[in-house]
Design a protein that fits this description.
Radius of gyration: 48 Å
Distance between the termini: 145 Å
Number of strands: 26
Shape: globular
Largest sheet: 22 strands, antiparallel, barrel
Number of helices: 2
């Protein structure tokens, strides 16, 4: 009923508008309501499908589908290619025999013979005999000043799966003159008494163990025996053994070096004596990034009985060596602090200076050294090295003119010998520079070192040393020359006379005529410098030696 009324109200404006358009009157309309309005609602249509939502948290699995291809059948059977037959590589035979003969001025003589084993994977042996002698040529009151050195050497090496062995036997018979009497007036009146004679007999065995599982900690070691005899029934027996073992401490490997040395000395004017020398030195080394390191400590000592006095000497040396490679092959800096000791013996002293008086005191010399430096390569293959160091020396060996207790032979003849003394405390400050140019055919190297000393008087010290080496090789020709300039030194006499500076230049030429024959020309002291190595001991002038070599 309400909707009908509303509809009627809505139609009134329309009817009125229509009346106005037509100009007719509105006719009366009768609306009869028969029954009330009944509202009806159509049955709802239900949605039976359920909503679906994708789970974004789930992981999509990769699915790999492998398709096995079907091989293509080729109906072709090629003939096999025969293998290449390699010929047996035959290495050239090594020369097993070599003979050298030479002669020079000042009645110089030279000869050598070498006999060696052919190629072998396990065994290598060799025998060598050498003679080098010179007669005269020294500014001395004596008519002749002979020097003869004769050496016989035999060695044998054997390599096994786990061990390497090397043994050697050495015999020496040497003769050197006491000719250094020009400055003091000491003259020998007995023919031949001014000849220092000494011989050396040495045998040693060295072994290394790189891979053995039985003695996995043992790395290397050796034993040696050396007998030295000199004039006036002076002699020395020396036995020595040194071994290195490797221990593990966590991830770090520690090397332990153990050494022992025994010596029996028999003098001619003083009672003989003996000494025991020992060394214990643990150390470790490794690399961490650009830093290479070595840390350790060295314990060494000597107990001396007899000789001039009973004495016990003991040293403790640290070992700290560090190096950092800042720029690969271009710049590396290094530094550290380390030390070492050396037991002086008759053999070591007489080998360095043959004209010493025989009855000497043998001490344990030590040195502590702190250093810093840099090294690397610059343009091309130019290699350089710069280093500064401070060295604290204890009981440093020095050779001085023996003006008080000169050597005397059996007949009471005074000889112009040299004596060994020790500077108890010496500080050495040094700076060294090196340049090297290794090329394919040419090698150039040079160095300069400047030293300053303080503390106890240290005779024979060298203030500055400048030297160089040049070698050139082209085809069958080899040329090498070495030069060294040494500044002034103190002689060590009672009145400290200064020894003059000198420059020594040596030259060697070698030419291979064929595979078997070659020649050598050696020249010493080319500048003909008349200098003294020790007070009264002048060197020979220009010395030349021509050597002919033939190998079988």
């Amino acid at each position: 009923m309400k909707r009908i009324v509303v509809l009627g109200l809505m139609l009134l404006p329309v009817l009125a508008w229509s009346q106005e358009e037509s100009g007719d009157e509105v006719k009366s309309v009768e609306i009869r309501v028969v029954e009330d309005y009944k509202a009806q609602v159509r049955s709802a249509h239900k949605i039976s499908e359920q909503p679906s939502f994708a789970d974004t948290t789930s992981e999509k699995l990769d699915v790999n589908v492998r398709i096995q291809p079907k091989g293509m059948v080729i109906d072709f059977d090629p003939d096999p290619i025969p293998s290449i037959r390699l010929g047996r590589v035959k290495l050239p035979k090594l020369p097993t025999q070599k003979v050298s003969l030479g002669a020079g001025n000042y009645t110089g003589t030279y000869g050598s013979f070498v006999l060696s084993s052919p190629r072998s994977k396990k065994n290598v042996w060799g025998i060598k005999a050498l003679h080098d002698g010179t007669l005269g040529g020294v500014n001395s009151p004596f008519y002749t000043q002979p020097t003869y050195e004769n050496t016989l050497l035999a060695d044998f090496q054997r390599a096994t799966k786990n061990w390497n062995f090397k043994t050697q036997a050495l015999l020496q018979a040497n003769y050197h003159s006491f000719f250094g009497a020009a400055e003091t007036g000491m003259l020998d009146t007995v023919s031949g008494a001014w000849q220092q004679t000494y011989g050396i007999n040495q045998q040693w065995l060295r072994t290394s163990n790189p891979t053995s599982k039985v003695l996995a900690t043992y790395r290397r070691g050796g034993i040696s025996y050396l007998y030295t005899h000199a004039g006036f029934a002076t002699s020395e027996h020396l036995a020595k053994t040194v071994h290195t073992i490797e221990l593990e401490a966590g991830d770090q490997e520690i090397n332990l070096e153990l050494g022992y040395q025994f010596s029996q000395y028999n003098g001619w004017s003083v009672a003989g004596g003996q000494y025991h020398n020992f060394k214990v030195a643990p150390f470790t080394q490794g690399k961490n990034g650009i830093l290479s390191y070595e840390f350790g400590i060295d314990f060494s000592g000597t107990q001396t009985s007899g000789l001039t006095q009973d004495r016990f000497e003991f040293y403790v040396f640290p070992k700290v060596n560090l190096q950092a490679e800042i720029l690969r092959r271009t710049l590396a800096i290094y530094g550290g602090w380390d030390g070492s000791s050396k037991q002086q013996t008759l053999q070591s002293l007489i080998q360095e200076v043959p004209q010493i008086s025989l009855d000497q005191e043998f001490r344990l010399s030590g040195q502590n050294r702190g250093y810093v430096g840099m090294q690397g390569a610059l343009i091309g293959k130019l290699q350089y090295r710069l280093e500064g160091a401070m060295t604290f020396m204890s009981d440093a060996v020095q050779f001085t003119r023996d003006t008080v207790l000169s050597a005397v032979d059996m007949n009471g003849t005074l000889l112009p010998a040299l004596s060994v003394s020790y500077a108890e405390q010496v500080l050495k400050t040094s700076f060294r520079g090196e340049l090297n140019v290794p090329l394919k055919q040419l090698t150039i190297s040079s160095y300069a070192q400047f030293n300053a000393y303080s503390g106890d008087s240290f005779f024979g010290r060298e203030g500055q040393i400048i030297g160089g080496l040049l070698s050139y090789e082209i085809n069958d020709l080899r040329v090498s020359t070495a030069a060294k300039h040494v500044g002034g030194r103190y002689s060590g006499a009672s009145t400290e006379l200064s020894l003059e500076s000198y420059t020594d230049v040596n030259l060697q030429l070698g030419y291979e005529i064929n595979d078997n024959l070659s020649i050598n020309l050696r020249a010493y002291n080319l500048l003909n410098q008349d200098y003294q190595t020790y007070l009264g001991y002048r060197v020979r002038g220009v010395r030349g030696l021509f050597v002919l070599n033939y190998q079988f």
